[in-house]
Each structure stands twice: as structure tokens, then as C-alpha cells.
UniProtKB/TrEMBL annotation:
Alphabetized InterPro entries for the sequence: Glutathione-S-Trfase_C-like, Glutathione-S-Trfase_C_sf, Glutathione_S-Trfase, Glutathione_S-Trfase_N, GST_C, Thioredoxin-like_sf
Domain GST N-terminal: 1-83
Superkingdom as given in the UniProt entry: Bacteria
Species the sequence originates in: Oceanibaculum pacificum
Subunit structure: Homodimer.
GST C-terminal domain mapped to chain residues: 88-221
Protein's UniProt name: Glutathione S-transferase
CDD domains to which the protein is assigned, alphabetical: GST_N_family
Secretion signal, residue range per the UniProt entry: none
PROSITE patterns reported in the protein's UniProt record: GST_CTER (PS50405), GST_NTER (PS50404)
GO molecular function: glutathione transferase activity
Example of a GO biological process term: glutathione metabolic process
Amino acid sequence: MRILYHQWLSPFCRKIRLILAEKDLAFELKEERVWDRRSDFLAMNPACQVPVLVDDEAPNETAVLADSTVIAEYLEEVYPQRLLIMGSPVERAEIRRLSAWFDGKFDEEVTRNLVGEKLMKRLLGLGGPSSEAIRAGLSNIHYHLDYIGYLCERRTWLGGDHLSLADLAAAAHLSCIDYIGNVPWDEHGDAKEWYARVKSRPSFRPLLADRMAGSAPPAHYADLDF
Ligand SMILES: N[C@@H](CCC(=O)N[C@@H](CS)C(=O)NCC(=O)O)C(=O)O
């Protein structure tokens, strides 16, 4: 059985969960308390970060993979039955650009300032949240939701005509921020309409059922008609 070592509110882990589900690949989730720095986990990923995927159903050998971009590319190559990076080289480059946008720029400007400050810092023993960082995250998210709206006015999905890795990367980040109630959906109708479409996919259902001990999501988190 494939095993995904993860953290519940890690956007990178959520992206891999979505990819595996879209490709209809069975897997088991194992929560990894990265802050414990388990030696067996460090042996799999010396960076001591989740996600790590152990794929013992790979064609020739068991694969131990770290870093969500690397894992996404691997899954795309080994399990091409439902492509998430599709089209011409230029179209594939655009999907990769947007995935990198959300996993890099969005993560730095929004996710880390909100989920990182409010939850991950405490778990990693890095002290309390910085109100300045939270203010920055709450302000920055508007620009990114506007950008999603801009893309959706021109395309069916973020990366083009089809649901792609770009949508899954973006939705993985937003789902974590939505869990802590910090996405101003009502001020961004186009982005909200796009998220409702991603959210209603069967691959998204397990994410909507996630509940972290000691921190419940707002009522609209799992509501498809939010
Ligand atoms: N570039 C990595 C980033 C992964 C990452 O930042 N994981 C976080 C959780 S969201 C983590 O494991 N942090 C623990 C640490 O850095 O010590 C990826 O795409 O997989």
C-alpha cells in the first residue's frame, strides 16, 4: 500500500492527497510529527518535511519520494491515466508556472503568514503568532483572490481548459486558510465560484472531513454551497 506521510493543514500534503485521489490511486495517510525529528523519517527525507510518499506499487521498485513538486511530477510520469499537466509544452509550462506561484509566492505571502503563524509555529515550538505577519497575510490574500478571479474570467480553470495541477495547488492552499476561517470569499465572487467547483470534486471530500484536534473549522468549511 502507498503511504503518504503528512500533516493535516499542510498545503503541500493536501496537494498530493488531491493528485492521488484524482488519479484514483489508493493510499494510506500517516501523520508525521516533523518536530519529533524521527530518525526513520529523516532517513526518508533529510529535510525533515512532509509530504513524503512511499510508493510500493510503482512498476519496478519501491519509491521513496520527498518534496511535493517532485512527487507531483513523479505521479504524473508513472500514472498518466489522468493527466494533470496536459496540453502543448507551452500549456504545460503555464500549469507549472501557476503551481509554482501558489506553492512559492502565495505560500510566502499568505499561507505562512496565516496558517504558519496561527498553527504551525506553535506545533514546531517556534513561539506565538506575530500580529504583524497575520495582518500582512490578511491583506495579501486579496491580491491573490483577485488574480484567481482574473484568470477565471479568461479561462475555464486556472491553467487552461481543464482542471490541472494549478487548480489543485491553489485549492490546497486555500483549503488550509479556509479551515481557519481567513478567506474573504464574499468579497471575491469569481474566486469563490472557482473554489466551489474544485471543492465539489470527489477528490476533495476527504479534505473537507479533516478535523484537527483542538481547532474546529468554521461551518462553511465543508459546505459545498458556502
Ligand atoms: N518544498 C516543500 C515544502 C514542504 C514543507 O514546507 N512542509 C512543511 C509543512 S507545510 C514542513 O514539513 N515543515 C516542517 C519543517 O520545515 O521543519 C514541498 O513542496 O514539499
